[in-house]
Amino acid sequence: MLYFLKTTFKIIILPFLILWIGFSTAAYPASGPSVGIIKASDLNVRPVPGSSMAPIFKLQKGTRVDILEDTGKWLKISYKSQTGFIIDNSDYIEIISLGSGKDEEVYSVKAITDDINKKIETRQAEIERITRDEKNIVKNLNNLDLSIDKTVKQASRTRSELLALSKKIDENMTAYDTLTASIKTQEEYLSVRLVALYKLNQVGAVHFLSTADSMFELFQRKKSLEHILSHDESVLNRYLVEKEKTTNLLKKLNEQKKQKLAKEAEYNKQIKALSEDRNKRSSILVNIRDKKSLEMAVIKALEEAAKNLDHAIDKMDLEPGFIVHEKLKPSNRSFADSKGLLNGPVNGKIISSYGAYRNKKYNIESFRSGIDIAAKRGDPVKAVSYGEVIFADWFKGYGNMIIVDHGKSYCTVYAHVEEMFKAKGDVVATDEVIATTGDSGSITGTGLYFEVRHHGKPVDPLKWIKKG
Predict the structure, then answer these.
(1) What is the per-residue pLDDT across 156-197, written as a single tens digit (0 to 9) for each?
(2) Predicted confidence band of residue 274 (pLDDT cuts 50, 70, 90)
(3) Residues 167 and 205 reside in one and the same domain
(4) 40 secondary structure, DSSP code
(5) pLDDT-wise least confident of 192-201, 296-305, 368-377, 449-458
(6) For the packed helices 215-290 and 103-203, what is the interaxial angle rounded to 10 degrees?
(7) pLDDT over 90 (residue 384)
(8) What is the predicted pLDDT for the residue at 415?
(9) Reading across the β-sheet that carries 93-97, which strands appear in turn?
(10) In whole angstroms, how large is the CA radius of gyration of the chain?
(11) Across 107-122, average pLDDT
């Protein structure tokens, strides 16, 4: 638009203005100061008359200057508080004399020229601002995606910690109940023993022993009494130990319950932040879809991301002689021999296909290197064949992404996932769950973006997956 305005002014409007001024000044001889309109592009302005000195600045076509002095072959001019000399040549400058009643008309032309230039400058500033806003929105969308992903991972860790803490609390509660039951049994036993000891004390231990009919019975009674008292002492000691354990366990349980409450509060806070970020993201996407310039900027950013992915995969060392543990192979069939026999990576509906396509909304042609599969958030994503994970990280434009090397220069790409269960270097089996579906880095919604590549070049994934 800016180029169109400038071109229109320079090619159509400006020549007519100059011709009109020329005819006007021919009818009215100059008798005062002069101005000039530059006709050449990048006209050199010298510090002194002559071409021996280097230019001090340049003037663009259509620029208006004040002529201070005519030295013959050179004109001394003034432009924005700068002075210098230019060649006096009608191919380079159109001289306009001010005077003889024509001042108002010339200044009127000048005003029109200045007004058009100001409008061009204003429009240029507006275009630059819009371009800046577009870039900022695309950048903010990516930053928001990163923030959401970070919160999702934090919430996942907190949820795991909560589950582990709940398991410990349950285990400790079971131990507490067991100890409490044991203590109750021991209390009942000790209660009976205390009554018996009390009665024995009333009778007297000496009397108990002295009533024996023989020395053998006396020693038997003494041995039995010592055994009973020893057992009672053992029960009492165990009772005291378990009582202390119960007290400590109760303290631990109370502390763990406090930790659980704090973790639950932290988790709820993370879920709330996640919900707010996702709402912001939805608003940005609505704004993008409502404005052609923003949607075009996002399309351009995605095309740039696709080129970056091509470049990244080209740099990856795809192993042509890839060997995996035999136990992971469901058969002796390699990936190269699995065309049309692979299970899909996720259950869902294919919403965009591989290959060249035309964006009907904006009538532009593009190329899609993979397929988009719509699915619910959290659905399992499975490796379509055994292999080794060579990438598991965030990739701009694709969100969380996993790349699996299947050998013989074949690899598969799984993008826009939420949780990743595998890391770089991990070996995966056929149909093993490696991630869950999400919308990280996606503008089309929750699902999975899937690619198959050979020697780094994308091929049609649908030719590798079983029909139906």
Answers:
(1) 888 888 888 888 888 888 888 888 888 888 777 777 766 666
(2) confident
(3) yes
(4) S
(5) 192-201
(6) 170
(7) yes
(8) 94
(9) 82-87, 74-79, 64-70, 34-38, 93-97
(10) 44
(11) 59
Angle at 225 between CA 223 and CA 227, to 5 degrees: 70
DSSP line for 414-468: EEEEEEE---TT-EE-TT-EEEEEB-TT-SS-SEEEEEEEETTEEE-GGGTBPP-
Question: Are 283 and 188 in a shared domain?
Answer: yes
Handedness of CA 118, 123, 129, 132 (dihedral sign): negative
CB burial readout 164-187, b (16+ within 10 A) else e: ebeeebeebeeebeebeeebeebe
Alpha carbon 190 to its chain centroid, in Å, reads 66
Confirm whether 252 is domain-assigned.
Answer: yes
Q: Which tokens sit at 260?
A: 């659980």
For residue 247, being part of any structural domain is answered with yes
Q: What is the mean pLDDT of the chain?
A: 77
* pLDDT tens-digit series, residues 18-39: 444 444 444 333 345 688 889 8
Q: Say how far residue 274 (Cα) sits from the centre of its chain.
A: 13
Question: What is the rounded distance in angstroms from the CA atom of residue 439 to the CA atom of residue 449?
Answer: 10
Region of residue 445 (phi > 0: left; psi between -120 and 50: alpha; otherwise: beta):
left
DSSP symbol at 409: T
Residue 267 located in a structural domain: yes
Residue type at 362?
Y
- DSSP result, 312-360: HHHHS---TT----GGG-SSS--GGG-TTTBPPSSSSEEEE-SEEEEET
pLDDT tens digits for range 393-434? 999 888 899 999 998 889 999 999 999 999 999 999 999 999
DSSP string, 193-254: HHHHHHHHHHH-HHHHHHT-SSHHHHHHHHHHHHHHHHHHHHHHHHHHHHHHHHHHHHHHHH
> Which amino acid does the sequence have at 396?
K
| Dihedral, 420, 422, 428, 432 alpha carbons, nearest 10 | -30
Between CA 418 and CA 436 the distance in angstroms is 6
Q: Are residues 221 and 321 in the same domain?
A: no
> Distance (Å, rounded) from C-alpha 52 to C-alpha 276?
68
Range of 22's domain?
2-101
Task: Please tell me whether residue 363 adopts helix, strand or coil conformation.
Answer: coil
